[in-house]
Amino acid sequence: MMEMREIRDGIYWTGKVDDRRVPFHRLILEKGTSYNSYLIMDEKNVLIDTVDFMFGKEFTDRLGSEFDLLKLDYIVINHTEPDHSGALGSVARKAKNATILCTEIAIPELMEMYKLGIERFRAVDDNETLSLGKRTLRFLHTPYLHTEETMVTYLEEEGILFTCDIFSTHVADTRLLASELSDDESIDADFIGYYSLIMDPHRRYVNPMLDKIEGLGVSMIATSHGYVLDKDTDRYIGLYRESAEKVKDVRTVILFNSMGGNTKRLARLLGEELEKTGIRAEVIDANVRPKEEILAKVADADGILVGASTKYADISGNLEGILAEFKEMDLQGKVAGAFGSYGWSGEAAHVVQDYLKEAGMKVLTTEEAVRTTGMDDVSFPLRVRFKPEDSIFKVKAAAAYFADKVRY
Ligand code: FEO
Q1: How far is the CA of 32 from the centre of ligand 1 (A)?
Q2: Which of 211, 227, 245 is the last residue of a domain?
Q3: One domain, residues 198 and 303
Q4: pLDDT tens figures, 65-106
Q5: Whose CA is nearest to atom 2 of ligand 1?
Q6: Based on the domain organization, do 207 and 255 belong to the same domain?
Q7: C-alpha to C-alpha distance for 250 and 247, rounded to whole angstroms
Q8: Domain with 307 in it
Q9: To 10 degrees, what angle do helices 392-407 and 262-276 make?
Q10: In a shared domain, residues 214 and 276
Q11: Which GO terms describe its molecular function (predicted)?
């Protein structure tokens, strides 16, 4: 474990540089990584994030040898994932006077993970401030970047933004500060590579986060992996904006068969949600338009949603005859999802999904959404009981997820 290192007056990096080939999010980080934690000394002393769970005891012992943990007033946890909160249990047990600050959603997770009582925690609101004496912390919630409970912490008087995963790089370099690199060393590839791996699956949350930090005046981005960005901060923030706004013009088809009107309304609601994101969505009733015309539109589309009501555990009307043609077409790799309203059992959406898979399409599923983004509010096939308006959050989540997948 490296010594603490002062990066501004009274502000110390106190993390761990991990130069192993680190297994992470189903990849091996060839350049290693670091877990950056920070200690702010003021009238109130604050620790911001910790290190990976496997270095928890080492971290706590080292920190405790350089700083009296009983003088710690707050521990800020910006993100619960254990590569940053991993030492919370051991630190909090020694720092008996410290209150743990995090979002409300994070509290039960941290209580369970580190067996800490509720009395140790205080939830901070979005945009809430906390005076440390000479300086002030401001907490900004940044949901889904990259998990639901995340936030960033801004030290106003210093212009330092503590961002945990956001703006990070997976590099083990004891130089720590980006300004210590020579002019011919660029970190852009590592920076964009990290964005693509961790943030891009959540890109619709990136611009709201950037809007939130715009105008703060950030002179240093204190990340929790890799380099501390102590120069060119506007350029790095701009790279996130540029990446998040990179979109392509796409067209989609929403094909449906509806018995009582609920699946038709669900198709229309999905279409409206897609149009709100700027994606063209043509909603087509399989029982009204000629099969050849429908197949031509499907062939031309970048993404297809197909919905069916359930009749005696099966699809009714013309839709099945159209779906049967899909496997004869070249639809490989097109993004697809199934949906349907039902009253009792709702098997039809699953039958539709089978046809889409058989055609070799990139079929969205609940499991795939959890695996790639950790989001558990996305359901595919999208099945709603009776009126779709009663399940509007589910409909919006599915449409937003489909929009992301088809557009990027
Ligand atoms: Fe670096 Fe989401 O943990």
Answers
A1: 14
A2: 245
A3: no
A4: 999 999 999 999 999 999 999 999 999 999 999 999 999 999
A5: 81
A6: no
A7: 9
A8: 251-403
A9: 50
A10: no
A11: electron transfer activity; FMN binding; metal ion binding; oxidoreductase activity, acting on NAD(P)H
State the distance from the centre of ligand 1 to the C-alpha of 291, rounded, in angstroms: 48
Give the count of beta carbons closer than 10 Å to the beta carbon of residue 104: 13
Give yes or no for a contact between 81 and 24, defined as CB atoms under 8 angstroms apart: no
Whether residues 317 and 239 share a domain: the answer is no
Residues with CB under 6 A from ligand 1: 79, 81, 83-84, 146, 165, 225
408 within some domain: no
Report residue 382 CA to chain centroid gap: 21
Residue 398 Cα to ligand 1 middle (Å): 25
Task: Indicate whether 219 and 299 sit together in one domain.
Answer: no
Ligand 1 centroid–CA 85 distance in Å is: 9
How do strand 46-48 and strand 121-123 relate by DSSP bridges?
unpaired
End-to-end CA distance of the chain: 40
Which amino acid residue places its CA nearest to atom 3 of ligand 1?
81
pTM above 0.90, yes or no: no
Q: Which atom of ligand 1 is nearest to the CA of 35?
A: 1
Of 245, 272, 290, the position where a domain reaches its end is 245
Tens of pLDDT, residue by residue over 233-290, are 999 999 999 988 876 678 999 999 999 999 999 999 999 999 988 899 999 999 999 9
Asked if residue 232 and residue 114 are part of one domain, the reply reads yes
